[in-house]
Amino acid sequence: MRKLLILLGFVGCLFCNSARAAEMVNVEYIHLLIEQKWGITVPYNPSVTNPKVAANMEYLLGMVDITNKRLNGTATTDYLHSEYATQYAADTVAANDAVSRLIVDWSPKFFVTTTSTTSSFSFKMSARGTFMIDWGDGTRDIIKRTDTSETTYSHTYSAAGARTIGIGGRAMEYNTKPAIAAISFWSNTNVAGISGALGAIFSTIGDGAQSGQQPRFYRTFSGCSNLSGSIPENLFAGISGAPASSMFCGTFSSCRGLTGPIPENLFAGISGAPASSMFYGTFSSCRGLTGPIPENLFAGISGKPEWYMFKETFSGCSGLTGSIPEKLFARISGAPAMGMFHKTFSGCSNLSGSIPGNLFAGISGAPASSMFYGTFYECSGLTGPIPENLFAGISGAPAEDMFVYTFYKCSGLTSIPENLFGNISGAAQRSMFFCMFCNGTSLTGPSAKINGKYLYKIWPSATSVQVGGCYLGDTGLDDYADIPAAWK
After folding, report:
1. % of residues, the chain, pLDDT over 90
2. Could you tell me if 125 and 150 are in contact, meaning their C-beta atoms sit under 8 angstroms apart?
């Protein structure tokens, strides 16, 4: 077992829990295991006269090398001649994990189609592992990465033209910096289409809980202005466990050529507590995405809010239609976090129907800065009264920018409920209600109250810096004439 642990450090794998019971294995066990896992029948070593004989680490790693060669058409590993190929007996833990982790099919799992004017192509990668790049012109590169530093890989073609680039392999460790993607095509205007599964190559290692086990797709396709078509449904299949900070931050931002609905199961493998900036700007400015937002898109996320977790997630997605799913954030509960829903639906002018009353039902506690900054900014298609309990759980002293621009230009909303803001009290803060209901041209009835008292009477000395434009243009409100100038 001690040698097994050394082996794990060498190959960068995080094998199964070695604390469980393990038994010594024979040669036959290894061959049957490979056939079951990979569908490949590897011949016994000619020197083996009895398949029931005990297998050692040397034999196990030798069979791993042979299987990798058969899978990929060429030798890709040489564990047999490493110092870890010892005469120590192999057990079930070593055999199961080696067959699962060290055998890799390097055939392409993810594909990029290039534009017809492509004469060269490049991308960045930071994951450790062995990868195969098929550049689409008959050239293939095997890239063996021994660290997680971000490196650019490029290829020049003999003539310009559309190509299909295939990427295969398996990542063994990831860079732990939030702003470093496992793979990135950021602002590559030669990207015309994508297909396949990135998650099959950059999958979660182990349970994803340890440092370097979870991939990030920080701006992976951001700014790929010629990328068109739909988002592959299985793009992130193979990724599981709790999200990492900035995991899908800006992944598709400004990909205005993407079309069709967002796949409901796109993040299906992700489950666990929120992470900071996890879906910050994921689909920002993807104007071509259509259809309703899938109700179960974030169904696996459960727990206390984190900073900027859904900041600008759908900002500028003017092609999205339908109503906001009531259970979109159903499993998120706890005290507000800074910028948690900052411009989440900003500019989604074609979202329709009423705002779900339970959309933020799990959020309770003291306000946080920018928590609902521009959440429904310019959502002119939303209609009906603002739900009475939308922010009912918020209680405590005001925070800076907490409701700035929240309902700005929501011209279809019709009324403000009395207890919209729960029980907020304390000294006024910068931009706390700045332009909150600005240009709500369909608003009627009384302006906002807390416990029966108008906001402008709770904070009679509030300045325009703190509440300026809160009711600007909301002339249909019953008390509009009584609202102090600082509030409008």
Report:
1. 87
2. yes
- Which of helix, strand or coil describes residue 211? coil
202: nearest Cα among 98, 258, 121, 124 = 124
The mean per-residue pLDDT over the stretch 461-473 comes to 97
Bridge partners, 124 (sequence order): 152, 184
Is residue 151 predicted with pLDDT exceeding 70? Answer: yes
The whole-angstrom separation of Cα 389 and Cα 420 is 6
Q: Are 374 and 343 in contact, with CB atoms under 8 Å apart?
A: yes
CA angle 152, 68, 121 (to 5 degrees): 20
Nearest-5° Cα angle at 213, 212 to 215: 85
Cα separation, 142 vs 92, in Å, equals 31
Length in residues, the chain: 488
Interatomic CA distance for residues 174 and 363, integer angstroms: 33
Distance CA 241, CA 386 (A): 35
**pLDDT given at position 21:** 61
**What tens digit of pLDDT does each residue of 46-62 get?**
888 899 999 999 999 99
138 contacts: CB under 8 Å, gap ≥ 6: none
Is pLDDT of 217 > 80? Answer: yes
Average pLDDT score over residue span 173-193: 98
Q: Amino acid letter at 233?
A: E
